């Protein structure tokens, strides 16, 4: 299965979370598209706006080409780009599997827009991507 991994990658903790999720997903035999691993050729010759447009196209194409999206979600407030990826995937009919590592307070739009809501990244090890069961969040939604 082709999986798009949606997550912020702006600090060491976020990058470590991505590496852990990729490790689990690849061990389960999935092909994983990781946005932080993709950049634009000749980046130095582009303006910021040109570079940003190309990155947008690459990432959107990754979502278009995937079978499912795994979203690494930090709780109530998340990265705006990651939230966009989640919404676009949902609107495109992709199944979104949310791995939340702050389950105390979650956003109702993320919770109700996902197919499965897992309590942490390690739960990816146990999730059945063949059957794709629906898993709901029991925490408070705002």
TrEMBL record:
Signal sequence residues: none
Which GO BP terms apply?
A: deoxyribonucleoside monophosphate catabolic process
Q: Which Pfam families match?
A: Nuc_deoxyrib_tr (PF05014)
Domain of life according to the entry? Viruses
Give the matching InterPro entries.
2'-dNMP_N-hydrolase, Nucleoside_deoxyribTrfase
Q: Which GO terms describe its molecular function?
A: 5-hydroxymethyl-dUMP N-hydrolase activity
Q: What is this protein called?
A: Nucleoside 2-deoxyribosyltransferase
Give the originating organism.
Answer: Siphoviridae sp. ctA995
């Amino acid at each position: 299965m082709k999986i798009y991994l949606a997550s912020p990658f702006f600090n060491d903790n976020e990058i470590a979370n991505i590496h852990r999720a990729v490790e689990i997903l690849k061990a389960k035999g999935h092909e994983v598209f990781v946005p932080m691993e993709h950049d634009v050729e000749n980046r130095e010759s582009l303006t910021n706006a040109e570079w940003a447009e190309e990155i947008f196209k690459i990432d959107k194409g990754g979502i278009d080409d995937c079978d499912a999206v795994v979203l690494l979600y930090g709780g109530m407030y998340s990265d705006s780009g990651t939230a966009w990826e989640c919404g676009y995937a949902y609107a495109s009919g992709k199944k979104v599997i949310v791995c939340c590592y702050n389950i105390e307070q979650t956003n109702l739009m993320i919770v109700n827009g996902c197919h499965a809501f897992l309590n942490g990244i390690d739960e990816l090890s146990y999730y059945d991507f063949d059957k794709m069961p629906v898993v709901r969040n029991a925490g408070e939604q705002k």
